[in-house]
Structures are given as structure tokens and as C-alpha cells.
Amino acid sequence: MRKIFYFVLSVLTVATIAGCSNAQSQKASDDQGQLNVMKKTKEIQITPVKISDDSEKGKNKIVKIKYSIKNTSKKEVVVGASDFIIKSGESYYYMGEGINFAETIKPGKETTGNGYYEMPKDLNKFTLIYHPVDSKSDLRWNIKIKE
Hints:
The chain is α+β, with helices and mostly antiparallel strands. The chain has two domains: 1-32; 33-144, Immunoglobulin-like. The chain is 18% helix and 43% strand. The protein contains one helix and ten strands. The chain has one helix at residues 2-28; strands spanning 39-40, 44-53, 60-71, 77-80, 84-88, 91-93, 102-105, 110-120, 125-130, 139-144. The strands form three sheets. A four-stranded antiparallel beta sheet has the order 1-2-3-8, with no helix packed on it. Strands 6-5-9-10 form a four-stranded antiparallel beta sheet, with no helix packed on it. The chain is globular and about 45 Å long.
């Protein structure tokens, strides 16, 4: 009976320590929300890895989001910046002007690309949504832009 007690106690201790270290690493990246958080569908893994303000003078700002995308399926997958939408409240912002990526990714391969999105200058928190037209996939990241 003692062996079972010590076994359960050691498992709980390890789980507690692992949980605390994970919470600390999440807190460290929390200044930009879920930036650098990988999420996946049945076919691909997506990580928004960098966000920057590429605005010039004007009433709106242009946000550039760099994506890292890996094809985990056994067939080619087409992914583009137009598959991503920015949502803030009840407003949606779509791919804007710029050299937006669109690529066919071979099975097992990984690529990076940039998407440009136009939004109001004062918008600094939003939800990034991956929702391609021809799929039921829907991934979401809560993102903050450093001021």
C-alpha cells in the first residue's frame, strides 16, 4: 500500500512541476498573445511567428504577419494569406495590398510566408482566424501588437 501511495505522490509532484514550468513559458510569450503558438488541422501545422507594423502615413495601418506552415498530410496542400482573417469585435479585416504568400506545399515540407492586413491604426488586439474557403478548418489565435 505504501508503494502505491509513494508512486501516486511522485506522479502528482512531477505533474505539478511540469504544469508550473509550462505556465511560466506561456506567460513569457504573453506580451503578444498567442504569437508563436502552433495549431494544427488534419493536414497542416500553422504558427504565426512574427508580426510587424508596415504602415506608412494614412488613416489605417498595414500589419504584416509571418507564418510558418508545415504540411503533415500525404498530399499537396495549397495555403495562402487569403485563408486568414483578422477579427476584432464585430469587424473583420481581410488580406490587403502587399506581396502576400500563396503556395502549394508538398507532403512533409515546411514553408514560411507573409500576409498583409489593413486595419484601423488604433487596433492592437485581435483574433487571427485561419479559415480556408474550401475547408471546415477553423483555427484561432489571440494576438496583441506591441506598441
